[in-house]
Amino acid sequence: MLIKLTAGTVYDPANDIDGQVRDLYISDDHITGDPGMGANIDQEYDLRGMVVMAGAIDMHTHIGGGKINVARTLMPEFCRQAPVERSALTRSGCSKATPSTLLTGYRYAEMGYTTAFEPAVLPFNARQAHMEMADTPILDTGGYAMLGNDDFLLRLLAEGADQALINDYVAWTLHATQCIGIKVVNPGGINAFKFNARKLDIDERNPYYNITPRRIVQCLTRALHELGVPHPLHVHASNLGVPGNFRTTLETMKAADGLPLHLTHIQFHSYGTGGKHKFSSAAAEIAEAINSNANISTDVGQIMFGQTVTVSGDTMHQYANHGYAQPNKWVCMDTECDAGCGVVPFRYRDKNFVNAMQWAIGLEIFLMVDDPWRVFLTTDHPNGAPFTSYPHLIRLLMERSFREDLLQQIHPEAAAHSRLSGLTREYSLYEMAIMTRAGPARILGLKDRGHLAVGAFADITVYEDHANRERMFERPAYVFKNGKLVVRNGEVCAVTRGATHAVRPEYDRGIEKSLKTYFDRYCSVQMENFAISEDEMIEGIGSPVMTTECLARGTA
Amino acid sequence: MLRHNIACPFCGLCCDDLTIESTPQQVTVVANGCPLSERGFSETANSGDSDHQPRIQGHVCSLNEAVAHAADLLRNAQLPLFGGLGTDVAGARAALRLADRAGAVLDHMNSAMMLRNLLAVQDSGWMTATLGEVRNRVDLLLIFGSDIEKHAPRFHERFFHNAESMFGQDTAVRELIMIGAQASAHTDAHTTTIPCPADRLGEIAMTLRALLQGRPLQAEDVAGIRVAQLRDIVTRLTDAHYGVIAWVAAELDFPHAELAVQAFSGLVKDLNTTTRCSGLPLGGNNGDTTFAQVATWQAGFPTGISLANGCPHFDPVQYNWKRLLDSDEADLLLWISAFDAHHTPPSGNTPGIVLGRAGMLCEMEPEVYIPVATPGLHHAGHVYRCDNVVTIPLRSVCVSELPGVSTVLHAITKCL
Fold first, then answer.
1. Which residue of B has its CA nearest to A75?
2. Do B122 and A521 touch (CB under 8 A)?
3. What mean pLDDT comes out for the span A512-521?
4. What is the distance between the alpha carbons of residues B111 and B113, in angstroms, rounded to a whole number?
């Protein structure tokens, strides 16, 4: 099958193409070169006047694993309010903040996304994460395994184990959970909450292991670097949501010692204590630190006004915030001496000072971080807002006057305290393509996604060049996934199944001996049943693995 | 042949440390068994080849014929009901897919029990811990109910009196308080048992909450238990470093038992104001937790789901499987019980398609009977533990020609 996409205006930052009119050719699932005169084109799409980008990649969205299912269980009203009928092509389901997996796949594809990553895979339940993602059609998926609150790692650190041993454990975890990265959530803090600690700042010691969050971040950052895992440590820093937490965030950046580090949903970690409400924006300090430290990348976790539900492994802070639950119901779970799960429904309101500040802080960070290669477009779905609000967010970033209009509607003190009205920056389509395609692909080590060069997988999104960017980005004219047309005029027209992206660093399998003893003594699952094999990914789970190459050890 | 680290799907603990010996004739649990796993693995259906043959109206037929006839019945049904649903993740996925196509109602055979927990979560949430967390942290276990070993035979061995814990705790001195119908009044160094009728356990939990919150109480005893004794329990719970409050929903067999679960969960939440405490829902079988999980991610709801109008609709009363059969609202029953041949469809007027564990003897011959393989015995698969978190991989431990539930359901879907 040879497809020609004729004369679209191409934005492909990975290949320095900024709005040039080009023809693209798709041969089966790949982008191919110009086949020359006389080649037999099976299908041609006239894309004159249309914008062409690679398929978008969401590098942080909670679409799999137990937490969203807990949220769905807690919030049946979401599904009641937004049932979606089956069609000849698509399954029924429900929408709102925690859509069913099938709807998640359709909606992402209908916004031009072709790949999405679940950032909080509980190692003891990586199977569920992959099964839910396997039931998320069209998208390629992947996960980041959570470490840093698990007894085994903290024990190694408390014993002063060699970095080499920690590296082996990290690599073993990536293999066993079929993940592409490692995330740490409130380093040591989820664990400390189980010992009844209610806070743990970056240099405070875990009450049992006597280890600081800083040490955990240091050792995991180094492990991934030394193993050559492309994606740097994905950090949900300490003190989520706590006024004044920007200092902790700045210290967390320092803990990386200059090695690559990714700070996730940084909006929730950029709060000061200024003003009469003792809650202020520290976006300027955070953006400045990101701008001057090239090893740091971030995604924003923008909030949008409305009802959602927050899901996080950070039980310490989800518990602390349960008083804000709206409606008044919430779940906290301690899971397998491994991590946690906290689910608290939230309604962000534009007339609420704190919520309005959160909204402004996120936008400030987007607009004040200079390098779009190091800041990614996320709402931390569904924590800041459902992923379906991305087109609205894109318009906020691309159109200053739209931003100004909305700024008039929020809590007046928040508007007055925010720097937003002074920020004139408007993102270009090229920058938007970096932030949602080329940047995420690069930071995850995906060599053949997120760009449109010959040889790349043909994940391609085509938009009408509408002046209203929200309308443009919410209804692509065409979306191709692996060369197959899956969306036409913003609606799914074919349903395909994606693959799982994972990484497989080399390690010394000698560690399995000590792990076996450890599992036998303490764990509720046998080590042999903990690990997920490649066959199981294909057969039982239903999503074949595509391996992302590691970098040379020590160069990540 | 001896096989180690085999998982058992026959109760909610899903122990995965079994050693199984299998010959072509017999499967035996050699180590780490319990009455439920021994029965589940060893009960074979070898009374004759006819057990392994599908039937239409009692006449042996090919699988293709059975599938085609089942598809015909589904095509012509006004309101098909998928009941039983005793299957693994793959079976649940296939059932939901077929139900979506056929416009069916889905309700698990255990829905009444499941809803005792689920309605409480939907209304107020809860704080819980998984089995691995309990195994390593619990220092005081309070059980509302008294017969948990019937539902989870190895609970004490694996999760309470385990040899050692991660944190150097002496597991021999863990404290146990059991309040329930079968309990006789008893106290020793580490165990306190207090008799109490099941339908008054919620009242006890509410009293404990009131005492914990320092509210004045005029009663001197509640459900036959002295308030002074309840006050002592509150002190022990607040003094504990990591208390666990457990219950088995199946034991709470009285109207509106979800209010009792809500009371247990409220007590757990209150205790966390000063110390740590977690709830632990125990029990579950026949893939109930598994079905609830898969249905929740695919259709948004755990059970009691109608897809008749083209999109998921949840109503635990209207779509209760027994009610739909008793009222003749459902005109076709597709019954699945792959783990347990004894869970047969209820006899009644509704014609049925039955996917049963081989050897199932239905009271009335169904319209279509298809003997199916058992997950974890005849084929690999996945089931959820009762803690709602951990998914356990099942292995195939003996060879079988029988088709799995998902194979049959996908074949029917293709015929529709």
1. B122
2. no
3. 97
4. 5
